[in-house]
């Protein structure tokens, strides 16, 4: 409901943007945790768990990317991205610690070994990074196609027709989005380095092992990404029937 209200509004401040982002963060993490628990304890399928984790990451980042079209200044872009990058750089390394692992064992009785648990957290980071890059590339493509293309009239969301903010336009959004993408790549590098140096877990190598062990995941990942990207564009359509 808040997401619909946020998208309908023509002007939002930094506080509203942060609420929008972290409402989605909380929702996605809760749904992901519940789904992961059901699959791990009932279905017991590692590939299926990976597919759903990518699915939820894609959903979150699609809404996060479309938030960029509603921001009004570089200060808002910086505030939103600093909050996101700070969260990324501390969340996964902290989750990999033995303290968090023992706490989860005590509270929820998880049966994984510590190494299996680290592998699961690392997989989550890899899939998050994959969703980040895919959605950002897609956003930059569709924000240009829908701005210049013949279907622009049915996507007013991307027309930047906000006369109260002169600097808020197509070029402004593209430049700021590219800046955010660069900052995400840097924060992800820092995150993976921390996991490798201090937690003894190489995120990329472990992810490649998973893909070699379950090659069908590659096809499944592609289908999930195409499905989510397509559905999101359809949800942004504005049709006026006579």
TrEMBL record:
Signal peptide: none annotated. It comes from the Eukaryota. Keywords: Membrane, Transmembrane, Transmembrane helix. The chain crosses the membrane at residues 20-39, 46-64, 84-109, 130-149, 217-239. InterPro entries: C553.12c. This is Uncharacterized protein. The lineage of its organism: Eukaryota, Fungi, Fungi incertae sedis, Mucoromycota, Mortierellomycotina.
């Amino acid at each position: 409901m808040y997401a619909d209200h946020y998208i309908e509004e023509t002007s939002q401040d930094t506080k509203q943007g942060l609420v929008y982002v972290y409402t989605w963060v909380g929702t996605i993490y809760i749904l992901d945790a519940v789904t992961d628990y059901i699959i791990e304890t009932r279905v017991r399928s590692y590939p299926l768990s990976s597919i759903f984790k990518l699915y939820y990451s894609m959903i979150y980042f699609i809404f996060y990317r479309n938030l960029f079209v509603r921001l009004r200044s570089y200060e808002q872009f910086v505030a939103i991205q600093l909050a996101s990058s700070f969260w990324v750089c501390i969340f996964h390394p902290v989750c990999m610690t033995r303290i968090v692992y023992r706490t989860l064992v005590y509270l929820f009785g998880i049966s994984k070994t510590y190494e299996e648990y680290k592998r699961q957290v690392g997989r989550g980071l890899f899939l998050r990074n994959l969703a980040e890059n895919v959605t950002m590339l897609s956003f930059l493509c569709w924000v240009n196609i829908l701005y210049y293309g013949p279907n622009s009239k049915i996507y007013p969301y991307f027309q930047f027709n906000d006369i109260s903010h002169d600097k808020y336009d197509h070029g402004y959004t593209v430049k700021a989005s590219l800046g955010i993408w660069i900052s995400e790549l840097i924060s992800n590098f820092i995150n993976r380095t921390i996991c490798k140096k201090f937690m003894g877990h190489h995120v990329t190598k472990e992810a490649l092992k998973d893909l070699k062990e379950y090659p069908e995941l590659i096809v499944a990942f592609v289908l999930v990404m195409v499905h989510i990207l397509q559905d999101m564009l359809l949800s942004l359509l504005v049709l006026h029937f006579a």
